[in-house]
Design a protein that fits this description.
The chain is mainly alpha-helical and about 600 residues long. It has 27 helices and 10 strands. β5, α25 and β6 (about 520-525) form a beta-alpha-beta unit. The chain starts with a strand and ends with a helix.
Length: about 600
Amino acid sequence: MTKNYKKTSINFAGPAATAPLAIMNSEAQENITIPQGCQTPSPRPLQSGFTLLLLCLAIYWGPALTLPLIRPEAMFALAPSEMLAAGKWIPITLNGAPHWDKPPLLYWLNLTTFKVLGVSDWAARIPTLGLTLAEVGATFLVGCLLMSRRAAWLGSFILLTSLGFFTLHLQIFLDHLITLTLILSLYALLRWMKQPGLRWVFLFHLSMAAGVLSKGLIGLGFPLLIGLLYAWRLRQPRVLALLFHPGGLALVALLTIPWFVAMELHYPGFCRYHFVSEHLVRFLGQRQPQGVSTFSFYIFWLFLGIWLMPWVILLPQALCRYIKNTAPRKGDGAGRLLIIWAAVILGVFTFSSTRIEYYSLPALPPLALILGWRVDEYLRAPDRSLPAALLLLGLVGLGTFFWLGWLDNLFAGNRREFFGMFPLIDPLAPLGFTIPVLALTGALLGWRRPRFAAACYGALALWLVFLTFITWRVLCPLLSDKSPGNYVRLHAQPGDLVVMESIEEFEYGASFAFYAGRRILMVQRNGVPRFNFPVAPEQDFLISPDRLRELWYGPQTLFLLVDDAMPLESYLKEAQVAQAEAGKRLLVNRAGGNRR
């Protein structure tokens, strides 16, 4: 079966400035052959892919170099810096104590970067920037196997300009690695179906091994489950030869088992903790302490919609049309991989008792490709869908201002560090009004001009990305401990004590410790934070409130970081404030005050 599309040229004056025009003018794929339901790759996709990566680099380079490390992500910089100082690749430590929770691959990437570029917050973001580019590029390659090159380009553009992909890639997360390894494994599966070969067996299982070393068993489970469902749906049992290739499975074992053995030798009981507590018990929602509050399944799905903004308005229709047009009986069953891919990710976390807003990240690439396919279909046969979506988007944008208070309560209720963030962004509200204005203008002027509507949608997505960056920069003083950490680094003496008060998880102290450049103590209240694994007394940095009081009145200078969201002990209310910033204060005891 052969499809022919009219070939048009790509004309980029610059990746960021003319991206909406690229939506209309990207080159369509020629001579697509579909053997056994899987299309051959687009010929010479390098030009399209190169412009896509340039655009991605233009958007993400600035944030990667300028934003400070916030509390949830700084552990991925602190741990590698400690490993570098110790000259060891294992074990992983955090604030001087063993850290069992996460596999090592991201730590190793950042450690390697620190070896080359030195220890800094921007250097810690370089691997994440590389992962961002790789995720977008790999998504484009998968799209080229399943749809026209223009649709693949559009889908990748939608991915990198979606609110969630941009927001989450402003931070260092293990989920970027698991997303990339999943994309690569499924790309290898598609290539193997077209032409079986050892190189695709190698890539598939290498990606799974990297996934295991990124975030544990889901790195193995997601590709296998998606592959099994795909083989069943297409009635292609030969896929099992790839999924369970003896040599490939041996490669996975060779690359992953040594790390687990080494950790078990260093810390007896690690494997049981990793496989039982961090996987099974967490999935069932019985892990203690629970840690960060998890979302209900409908809030989890609400965040999926937020993450796909502004493109999510098109998603229901895109899914219906895509499912209809990729039915196996139509000879294009390979396209069902995208549906199965997204359904597995979202299904697993829907039924899990532990749901965090960014767990849906691996489902964004297939959904973005489906949206790209729909926009490409719209450009070939225009209808009223894009102008109508812009109209609805404009109305939603206007309505957003009426439920910002609900969002404030939602964020603050699940992450205490988000307390008070909406008052900080109130000055940006006038800029927020530009979103519905752009959307409604695009709907009005694009009603009879389909290409203008598409260009306006792309411009709106880029503008939303820019506003998100500005908002994130305003919130960084609240979410990051860079300023108080730098103050401690400059003013504290070697024998001084540094303490962090009222923290939910000990990992959230990493931003303060990283910028302070020293080990800190943390106050434990109501049983949190606490370790889920054995920690030697000399490595334990958790202290009781009574111990804090003793140290406060002791002979040593003590710097204490407190959040304004939490009430202070009576003896701290008149303490000297060394520094005050949005949402937090750095207090110093009388010893420090007398010394200075």
